[in-house]
Amino acid sequence: MLETPIHPRDLPLFSDDLDRLEKILEIVCRDRGMNARSSEAERLGALIIQLYRQGVKDDAKLLALARAYF
User: The pTM is what?
Assistant: First the structure.
């Protein structure tokens, strides 16, 4: 039997997770005057998901990191 470790980044995101991340994205977009449907917002959303999958689960930390990036 092949044993491979399961990394948090490989776990699925559930609707509750996505709702949390979307709220953070909306806040940063609003702060920056960014269109939530723009390619810039898409990159920001990908960053937020990546941070979350890497273990940043605290909303305040995610928000601070997303604001620092953009």
Answer: 0.84
